[in-house]
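worker-03 picked up job from queue 'complexes'. Input manifest follows; two sequence lines, order preserved.
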Amino acid sequence: RKEVEQDPGPFNVPEGATVAFNCTYSNSASQSFFWYRQDCRKEPKLLMSVYSSGNEDGRFTAQLNRASQYISLLIRDSKLSDSATYLCVVNIPGTASKLTFGTGTRLQVTL
Amino acid sequence: DGGITQSPKYLFRKEGQNVTLSCEQNLNHDAMYWYRQDPGQGLRLIYYSQIVNDFQKGDIAEGYSVSREKKESFPLTVTSAQKNPTAFYLCASSPQPHRIVISNYGYTFGSGTRLTVV
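worker-03 finished. Artifact:
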């Protein structure tokens, strides 16, 4: 089983729609979770951290479900500028805890 | 402004050549990382360093080498032993030495180097 798994998409949604992505992780001891955004041919940029109680940043809401080992990202009122690949990122605990990146879910918002 | 700088943005390598990719950060971060990304694929960890003069192999270290002589700098050499070096290379840094949970800070990435074998 992969350490971090995401549906690659693409998700094609009209402007103004609400879209949700899920991501599952395999290590139950993971404690840090993030969503990154990556535009085509650019570097990943931190979108938001994911906290245990869930958190919101404008149109974006992130949730963590430890029991089922998944995190989610909800985007409300999608904009054309939201078109990108969204990477789920999880820390893999150990003596040298590192972040592991999912392969990403591609979102295309259309007129 | 603080940040992480990679150079060059584009690099062309002939068969059998070694090339070095530069990564410099002025964020005062302890840890630095090198990732490789192939088209349509996720990031794969090549090497990482938690502290000056120390570094560890990641998942795909074969054919690559690094050094960490200064906190600010973590250059990556792609050697002729790397059979398929064409890829997008990303350098990242973070403030936490990774023996503890990253305090929800995440990594900061440079803008990347596109390496092509010609």
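worker-03 released lock.
The CA atoms of residues 37 and 86 of chain A lie 5 Å apart.
The mean pLDDT of chain A is 93.
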